[in-house]
Every structure is written in C-alpha cells, then in structure tokens.
C-alpha cells in the first residue's frame, strides 16, 4: 500500500518526484529521492549496480508501484493514471525483446496496434521510423540476422511508434561498437531537438556527457549528486588529471613526494592519479622531485572521475 504522499511535486514538469521510495520487503531500494525533469530535457541516472536506478525507472514507467513519496509523470499519478501515462511514453528496455519471427516493418506495425492506432497510421509511422533508424533498406528482412546495432535502432524506433512525449531508455548502447553507438547518439540527439524528453540510464560516462543536459548520481538508493556533466566535474574533480604509472604495488611509496603539489591524490595498484588544474606543469614539478614513473598521461577530468569519487571503485555485483 502506498504511504502518504509528500508535498511539492511539480505537475508542469515531464517527471517530478518528491520523497520517492521503493521497498521490497525489508529492503529499501530507493530511499526518498527528489528530482524534477523539465519537458524537453535529456536526463540521466548514473550509479553502480544496486543503486536504485532501475527501480526508479520502473516506477516512472508505471511498471512498479511506489511505496512512498510523490511521483508525477506528465502531471499524472502513475498509481491512478497508469494507462494514460503509458499511452504517452515510450520504453526502450536494455534487452532487445523484438519478435524475431517478424520483419523489421512488421515489428513496428504490430507494436503500434497495441496502442489502438489504425492500420493505415501504423503503416505510415513504420515507414517514417525506419527512415529515422536508417533501416529502410531492411524493411522486409527478418529481425534475427540483423546486427546488434540494427536491432538496437529498431528497438528505439519501436519505442517511438506512439509519438511519445517522454522516452525511457535503459542502457541504450550497451554492447554496441563505437560506430553504432555514435549513430544512436545522433538519433537520440535529433529526438531531443524535436522536443521529446529523454530519461536514460547508462554505464558509459562518455555517453552521459554526450547526451545528458543534466543527471543524478545514485548510490545505495539515494541521490548523492545532481547537475550538468560540466558542473559535476567542476564541483567534484579538477580541470585535469595526471596519471603516473609504476610497477604494481609500488605507487603508495611516492605519495609523500607529490601530494603537496595537487588538490588530491588517488592511489591505485599500478598508478597515482593526481588531480590538478594544470597537469603539464604538475608533471614538470613531479620530475623535479625525482619521481620517475614508468609512464605519464595528461588528460582532462571526466564524468568517470566524478562517478568513481562519489560511488567508490569497489566492484558491485
């Protein structure tokens, strides 16, 4: 049974949550999170396995009822307006659950009929979506022999058959090669430009930087950071990182020689990460102190640095 709702959800936003909770028995998967997604924004959920991302997405998609707090999707309560919400959102699951016995065209047309759309409408829509997904030349091919990238594009196209105002994407490019990923990024960017709100989860930090206007980092069921990718990097990291690689097991002995040169030092089994405003200058000063690593790498700070700082490097199954 749903607990009493928290006040303050924004009914004008695409998605608004206040004190949102999800409990499975004694386990609280989502622990009272607050977030708002304005219409037309690309918004991301980042976090390690078990952080609560999938549970949150399932509540937004009306697949799982909340156990506390307030949630509004397109101004409606999923608990009481599930069918109306589902008719206006698109869902792209992590697994490509296409019908392998049907053709590309038939997958789109059959799915469109689930929304009560006329046959004439879904025929026209299928043509439009195949062009969008660059699958027009495979329209009458069976799904099974398609490449992974083609299947992923078809899954995304299928999620658009009802002209959704909000599209939920769970790990949209997992397992794809770089060329296929970049093509999908382009398709998703075009969607956002057309005014569609995108909500996605991803384990690829570069994908989050490319696609998301704003994102939240979740850990253990809570939101631990929120902002644009650039703002999060500025808040939780430095402009650049200097990586010093040593023989495994030895980096720790050099910390005392370099820690006063930078804002933060991270010790890994085979290297030191020096967080600094100017990595080239820091590298020169490290050399002046007689530190001689096997190799050095100068790079800019990324969202991955932020993610690992906030959630740790411990492997989570």
Description:
The chain has about 325 residues and is of the alpha/beta class. The protein folds into 2 domains: about 220 residues, Rossmann fold, CATH 3.40.50; about 70 residues, 2-Layer Sandwich (Alpha-Beta Plaits), CATH 3.30.70. The protein is built from 11 helices and 13 strands. The strands form 3 sheets. A 6-stranded mixed β-sheet has the order 5-6-7-3-8-9, sandwiched between helices. Strand 8 and strand 9 form a beta hairpin. Helix 3 crosses helix 4. The longest helix has 16 residues. The protein starts with 14 loop residues before the first strand and ends in a 6-residue tail after the last helix.
Given the structure, what is the number of helices?
A: 11
Helix-strand pattern, N to C? EEEHEHEHHHEHEHEEHEHEEHEH
* Strand-pairing-aware structural class: alpha/beta
State the CATH superfamily name of the largest domain.
Answer: P-loop containing nucleotide triphosphate hydrolases
- Proper CATH architecture of the largest domain: 3-Layer(aba) Sandwich
Tell the overall outline. Answer: globular
| Tally of domains | 2
CATH fold type of the largest domain: Rossmann fold
Tell me the strand percentage band. 25-35%
Low-confidence stretches: 1-6
Q: What is the strand tally? A: 13
Report, as a whole number of angstroms, the end-to-end distance.
Answer: 30 Å
Order of strands in the sheet with most strands: 5-6-7-3-8-9
Largest β sheet strand count, sense and barrel closure: 6 strands, mixed
CATH class annotation of the largest domain? Alpha Beta
Enzyme class: translocase
GO cellular component, one term: plasma membrane
Protein name: ABC-type xenobiotic transporter
Subcellular location: Cell membrane
């Amino acid at each position: 049974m749903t607990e009493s709702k928290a006040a303050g959800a924004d009914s004008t936003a695409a998605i608004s949550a206040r004190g949102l909770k999800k409990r499975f028995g004694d386990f609280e998967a989502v622990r009272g999170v607050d977030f708002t997604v304005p219409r037309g924004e690309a918004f991301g959920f980042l976090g390690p396995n078990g952080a609560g991302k999938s549970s949150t997405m399932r509540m937004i998609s009306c697949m799982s009822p909340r156990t506390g707090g307030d949630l509004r999707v397109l101004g409606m309560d999923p608990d009481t307006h599930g069918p109306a919400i589902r008719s206006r959102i698109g869902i792209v699951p992590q697994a490509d659950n296409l019908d392998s016995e049907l053709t590309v065209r038939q997958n789109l047309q059959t799915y469109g009929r689930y929304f009560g759309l006329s046959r004439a409408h879904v025929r026209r829509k299928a043509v439009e979506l195949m062009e969008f997904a660059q699958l027009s030349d495979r329209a009458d091919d069976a799904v099974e022999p398609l490449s992974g990238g083609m299947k992923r594009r078809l899954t995304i196209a299928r999620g658009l058959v009802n002209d959704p105002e909000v599209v939920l994407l769970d790990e949209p490019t997992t397992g794809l090669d770089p060329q296929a990923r970049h093509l999908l990024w382009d398709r998703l960017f075009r969607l956002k430009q057309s005014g569609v709100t995108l909500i996605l989860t991803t384990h690829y930090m570069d994908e989050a930087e490319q696609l998301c206007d704003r994102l939240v980092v979740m850990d253990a069921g809570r939101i631990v950071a929120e902002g644009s990718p650039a703002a999060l990097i500025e808040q939780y990291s430095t402009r650049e990182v200097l990586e010093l690689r040593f023989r495994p097991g030895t980096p720790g002995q050099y910390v005392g020689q370099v820690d006063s040169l930078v804002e933060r030092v991270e010790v890994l089994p085979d290297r030191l990460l020096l967080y600094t405003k100017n990595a080239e200058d820091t590298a020169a000063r490290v050399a002046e102190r007689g530190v001689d690593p096997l190799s050095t790498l100068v790079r800019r700070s990324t969202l991955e640095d932020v993610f690992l700082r906030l959630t740790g490097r411990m492997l989570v199954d």
